[in-house]
Amino acid sequence: MNGKQKINILTILVLLMSIALCRAEHGWELVGNLEMNCPVPRGLFFSSETEGWLGNAMRPIAHHTSNGGIDWEEHKLTNAVILDFYFINPDTGWFVGDSAEIKRTTNGGEEWTQQHFGLIDGLEFPVVLYDILFTSSNEGWAVGGYWIIDGGVFDRETYVGRLVLHTENCGVDWEIAFIESYRGDVNPDVGKPTKIAVSDSLVIVTLPIYPYSRSYSVLVSKDKGENWRISETPCDPYSIVSLGNETFIVGGFEEGRWQGDETSMVIKSENGGDDWDIVYSTNERERFSPYSISFMTDSIGWIGGTHYESFMLKTVDGGDTWNELFFEDSETHPKLVQFINETTGFAVFYKDIYEIDIYQFKDDNSIDHLKNTTSNLPESCSIDNTFPNPFNSRINIHVNATMPISKPKLLIYSLSGKVVRNLSPFNNNLNNHLIFIWDGKNQNGDNVAAASYFVEFVSFEKKSDCIPITFIK
User: Does one domain contain both 71 and 92?
Assistant: First the structure.
């Protein structure tokens, strides 16, 4: 081996080590590869750290893994394309797709029982169901719609339909929660329901538009489907997730879509879709087009999409700010992302027209990261006092600053790294002195277990160190 060959080998080794180090920094690791002819992956869902399912919008084939995404098998579960999976546990799950098809399994996918197929009363054409979500073992939602377009443009021969389905008995019976069907010129807020988010009585459905429509909107119900209204959004909504009283949407704002003028956005609502704030945006369409969003805790979330540079967006402050994390392999694009718990997630990376890569995120040291967080706040802005500590009924947490603080909040973490409470200040930021009071209850109003917890102060500008406190009974 001559000197030049040694240098080339050394260069390759250094490059491979750099890629490995980069991936180690952001926590994602390549675990598997899946060959899919003309892949349009849809409905990524892992029901456990080993069992996962994936559909393909171009072919009536489902893909299943039983070893965490390393190996995949094809399954012919239906003659229709499968667009979404949802499991409430490793045994019980559903999928939806063409012709309003809904199927259910109770044995981990070994057998599937058809719950619905074909025309739905009130709609003139077979509906495509795009998304399914269950909030309990009994209650679930499914959304879909259709466009029948003559000649590729909207005119009086255009047929439009959209609906939301609801079940309260595991999908045995599906009731129509919302339905709309008409023929003729399309109104500005038309869109097929494609994604749904549910939090308590709040139900929000995305309505991505046809390129020539003139506004962006979501379908909102604040009484669990009894009444519905259209709410305008700053962007064309692609995907959605709700965390308590906060809802996040990823999408784009397009002016002359086919000319490439698009601004990608992450928007947030804290009042059930009445108002939306832009928390991230970029007008470099070729860099990023967001497609999916998933949170691993109440404070840490990820966004995947399609773009010419390989990166994902990540938040560590509950979605107030989003940062770009790059992958060295620019040939792949993290399109779908799903977290199954506080430490483990999976992502589908689109590679080319024949194959996709499967990545896994694994973080067993989430609380160590919280304990070792370096303060980004000025020295004059920190958690000043916690009293009494330990406590058995309530604790006062004081934060002092010599500068104004915007969007202040206090996060209470369990030892596993889960956010159990998100607190607003008790006072009105008098002289930049904030007081937070915690009564030992979680976000749902239930008493937490007697244990040690961590407190972190977060504002729009920065965040503090994590301070330990102890709750006793």
Answer: yes
